[in-house]
């Protein structure tokens, strides 16, 4: 079984959800996020973030490969989209891994900048709330306010991931309690990815 993700500009997710449904995918969902790609001009204008939709689904491995091949041309037409799957079991068959960083809200951009300084390309940030042992929620008007989080998703070349992971871990002090976590998953199929260089 594969976990398939397709990251697209806003408004494109429904079309791809229908493709996945037609191919027998289950647990199909769509989330809003922000994309970030390195561009000096866009950063200087403070418009380096783009609105994204992240479509996710569970799908059989052979079907995942076929779906990624099928949507590959559509992703090229969209121009700023990527599709990839990670195995829920087995080994990494690609030169890429998916790196996840979960930190407090508004710190996701710092993780992206550190990664880009060390060879990563684009990334996607999903905003959410934290929950877990030791997570302290605030109380306001008798309501629990859970801490907001950024979930950063990056596809990183295998030979870059150790260096990037180490730099993010150290520079963001993720070894301290409550600062965040970083982990990676293997990637089995990918389409629409801009090549990364060391």
Task: Please provide a written account of the structure.
By secondary structure, the chain is an alpha+beta fold. Helices cover 29% and strands 39% of the residues. It has helices at residues 13-22, 40-44, 61-78, 108-117, 158-171; strands spanning 2-9, 26-36, 49-59, 82-87, 96-104, 123-129, 138-140, 143-145, 148-157, 181-186, 189-191. The strands form two sheets. It has a nine-stranded antiparallel beta sheet. Strands 7-8 form a two-stranded antiparallel ribbon. The radius of gyration is 17 Å and the shape is globular. 32% of the residues are buried. The mean pLDDT is 79.
**Main pleated sheet:** 9 strands, antiparallel
Q: Radius of gyration from the CA trace? A: 17 Å
H/E element string?
Answer: EHEHEHEEHEEEEHEE
Strand order within the widest sheet?
10-5-9-6-2-3-1-4-11
Overall structural class, as computed from helix and strand content, comes to: alpha+beta
User: What sort of overall outline do the alpha carbons produce when their principal axes are compared?
Assistant: globular
The number of distinct helices, counting runs of at least 4 residues, comes to: 5
Task: Please give a handful of descriptors for the protein shown.
alpha+beta, two-stranded antiparallel sheet, 29% helix
């Amino acid at each position: 079984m594969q976990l398939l993700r397709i990251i697209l500009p806003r408004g494109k997710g429904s079309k791809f959800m229908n493709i996945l449904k037609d191919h027998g995918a289950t647990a199909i969902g769509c989330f809003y996020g922000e994309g970030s790609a390195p561009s000096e001009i866009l950063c200087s204008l403070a418009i380096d973030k783009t609105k994204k939709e992240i479509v996710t689904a569970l799908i059989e491995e052979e079907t995942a490969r076929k779906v990624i091949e099928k949507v590959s041309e559509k992703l090229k037409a969209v121009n700023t989209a990527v599709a990839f799957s990670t195995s829920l079991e087995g080994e990494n068959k690609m030169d890429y891994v998916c790196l996840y960083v979960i930190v407090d809200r508004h710190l996701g951009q710092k993780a992206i900048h550190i990664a880009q300084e060390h060879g990563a390309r684009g990334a996607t940030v999903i905003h959410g709330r934290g929950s877990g042992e030791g997570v302290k929620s605030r109380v306001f008007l008798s309501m629990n306010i859970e801490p907001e989080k950024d979930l950063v998703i990056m596809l990183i070349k295998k030979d870059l991931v150790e260096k990037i992971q180490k730099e993010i871990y150290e520079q963001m002090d993720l070894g301290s309690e409550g600062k965040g976590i970083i982990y990676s998953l293997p990637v089995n199929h990918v389409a629409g990815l801009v090549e990364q260089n060391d």
